[in-house]
């Protein structure tokens, strides 16, 4: 089962919790055991798994990336979003998750995040649920 989701980001850089969308897709699939792939087809966005209980964690990650990869760095790419391309490459555009008994095998504090680095924009991501 493959589903496409459209989201609207509201800031240049932000992490949006998409765990609920992925769980919804798993429920609709009816698949008990397997693998879930989450993918975004953007070169200035990414996906990651991290703590979703304390919002300061995602803010700390964004701030660290800003310091390490500044927006106004000395880049050859002249569109003004080279930092976003680098951040996307470092975090990655896809995730593989395990599915057991119709549940994602996420840790207690883990959530799935869509990472925007060149917003605000309308973005999409895909969720593919595959059974054994």
Strand order of the largest sheet: 1-8-3-5-6
Element-by-element helix/strand order: EEHEEHHEEEE
Share in helix: 25-40%
First-last Cα distance: 13 Å
The CATH homology group name: YjbQ-like
Second rung of CATH, namely the architecture: Sandwich
Task: Characterise this structure.
27% of the residues lie in helices and 38% in strands. The longest helix has 14 residues, at 55-68. The chain contains 3 helices and 8 strands, in the order ββαββααββββ. It has a single domain, classed as YjbQ-like (Jelly Rolls), CATH 2.60.120. The protein is α+β, with helices and mostly antiparallel strands. It has a 5-stranded antiparallel sheet, covered by helices on one side. The chain has a 3-stranded antiparallel sheet with strand order 2-7-4, with helices on both faces. The protein has helices spanning 19-29, 55-68, 82-91; strands spanning 2-8, 14-17, 34-39, 45-51, 94-100, 103-104, 110-116, 122-131. Strand 5 and strand 6 form a beta hairpin. The two termini are 13 Å apart. The protein is elongated, with a radius of gyration of 15 Å. This is YjbQ family protein.
């Amino acid at each position: 089962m493959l589903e496409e989701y459209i989201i609207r980001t509201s800031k240049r850089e932000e992490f949006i919790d998409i765990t609920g969308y992925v769980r919804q897709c798993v429920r609709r699939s009816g698949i008990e055991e397997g693998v879930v792939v989450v993918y975004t087809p953007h070169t200035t966005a990414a996906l990651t798994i991290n703590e979703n209980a304390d919002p300061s964690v995602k803010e700390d990650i964004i701030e660290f990336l800003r310091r390490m990869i500044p927006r106004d760095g000395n880049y050859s790419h002249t569109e003004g979003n080279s930092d976003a391309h680098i951040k996307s490459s470092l975090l990655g555009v896809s995730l593989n998750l395990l599915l057991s008994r119709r549940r994602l095998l996420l840790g207690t504090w883990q959530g799935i995040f869509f990472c925007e680095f060149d917003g605000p924009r309308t973005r999409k991501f895909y969720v593919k649920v595959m059974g054994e």
